[in-house]
Structures are given as structure tokens and as C-alpha cells.
Please model this.
Amino acid sequence: MPELWTSCVDWLTLHAVAPFLALIHLDGLAGDPREIAAALLVALAQVLVIGLVLRPLETLAPAERWRDRRLTRIDRTYTLVMLLGLNPLFAYLVLMPLANWAGGGADVAGTDAAASGLAHWLPWFQQHPLALFLTYYLIYDFVYYWMHRVQHAIPWWWALHSMHHSQRQMSCWTNDRGSYVDGFLQSMVLATVGLLIGVEPEQFALLMFVGELVQNLSHTNVRFGFGRVLDKIFVDPKFHRLHHMIVDPERPRLHDCNYGQVFSLWDVLFGTALYGEPPRPTGVGDPMVDIDNERGLVAMQWGAFRRFWGALWTRAGWTPGDVAFDERYRPVPTAHVDLHAFERDCAPGASASALEAERTPA
Model:
């Protein structure tokens, strides 16, 4: 299998990636074109899993039934653009040059990447690569959990991240729906941590792939989980769906839960785990965010950036807490907002939520 993988990467690099980079004058940069080829092959595998495994599961055991899946189509576009375009280019143009500059990946300026970070501090790991990778993943997922909480807590970051949460029809395609500025910030945080602990580029790619595939599953519109034991350790679709629930005016902090990416144990340990709730409608009640559902890809990115820009230059944008956004894209603490107004704005017939009448839990 390793030889077949290498052959496929080499073939794709020679016949597709290298000619394309030369055509757009990006060849000769610090990144390795083989990284793009490898990322494309991994992305193709991921798309096949989503389309051939997760999507049929949504038909067999849906958490919500929809008369049509109109709102899911933009998420499918996001997934294809991200996995087959932006992710490989980002790795080539940013992550690989950053790793090489910091001494990762190859032997740069006499630095052995395999003997840096955790493998350098604890030499035992050099003889136990599987244990090293699992430790990397625990650290990676722990950092993701706290970063995710910050995305919700800091209004200017929520202004970006809210686009991911605005989807009323959360499905197996929803994971890659998000602001590209938000994605860049996430990637830089995780890549910096990876460099500090000595993760090699190939291992980092595998960490990202496992995390992304699990998130594709956790966003899938299905009503089952992993059971009462495993769901205390791993994030399953029931667990993550509660994280995406629309605000409940009677229990306004209920949705402040379930931040884990792969391991739900962080939520259990730090008191943010929520279990036992039935499937609830997903989305964001704030009309200035909910309107994303009526927009195309470019307009959604622009709307999220306007919220971000409006929050960045206000004191409220830096004050932790739940916010909504006014007509000038400035954050307003939800403590000053009648959350029942969000219920009315999201009622059947409202222009920003025309499909809400079609949502009935399965």
C-alpha cells in the first residue's frame, strides 16, 4: 500500500499538479507540489466517504426530515471548494513554507524534525511512533476544544464563526461551511501548536484528515449516537447536533455546550457536556446571521466579514459573551435583547427563515 500511495502521488504531481502550478506561476515556491497531490487524494477519499456512506445514513435515520434539501447545496459546494482547492493550496503556499522555515518536515539548517518537540523532550517516543501520534492527537484536540470555546466567547471571532452555525439544515456537508478568515485563523493556531510540539507535515496532514472526517460524521443529520459509554469519550452526531441548536429563549445558555472536535471527554472534564436533550432545530436566531441561508458563497463570506469588521472596532466586540448583531453589523450583548424576538423572526413565513415550517424532528 505505501508503494501504491507513493506511485499515485507521483503520477498526480507529474501529470496534473506541477503543470497547473506552472500555468498559474506558483511553481518553485517553498512548498512541495507532492503535498498538493497527496492532499487531493486524501480529499477525494473524504468526499467519497461523505457521499457514499454519510449521505445514505441521513436518508435511513434522519434526525430531522426536510421536504427538500435546498439549504444543504451551498454546503456541498463549500466542501468541494475547500477539500479540492483551498486546502491543498493553503498547505502548499502557507503551511509547508512555515514548517520549513521553523525547521519541520525536512532537514533544514541541520535540524532533525524527528528529534524536536515531544520526541526531543521525551526520547522514549522515538521508539514508539504510534504512541507519539496518539499523544499529538490528544494535544491537537485539546487545543481545538479551547480554541472552539474562544470562537464562541469573543464576539469578533463569533462574527466569523457564526456563519458555520447559521445553517438550518445541518448535514454531512456542513463541516466545511465557514468563513475563510475563520478557517485561516484556526489553521494558524493549530499549525503553530503542531510546530511547537514537533509534528511533521505528513503527521499534521493525517491529524487534520482524521479530525475533518470525524467532523463530517458529527455534522451528519442522523439521530443515533455511540451509546452511553462511548459518547462520554467521542463526539457523535447526537452530541454535536446539540452544539448547533438554535437559541432557546427560556434556557438561553443551553446551546453553550459540546465544543469537542473528536473527544467529548474535554466537555465532560470542563463542564460543557450536554446529554439527554432530544434533537433540536439547528441554526442561529439572530436575523443578521440567519440571513446567510438566503445568500450564495461570495455573499456569505462578505456578510461574515462585515460582522467581523463591525465587531473588531467596538468594545463590545472584545468583551466575552453571547452577542447578536445590529443593522450596522455591530455586536449587541444578548442580555440586552428579547430572545423571543428571534423566535418570531424565525417563525414560518419570515423572509429569513422560509423553510422553518418544513423542519419536523424525525
In short: The chain has a mean pLDDT of 84.
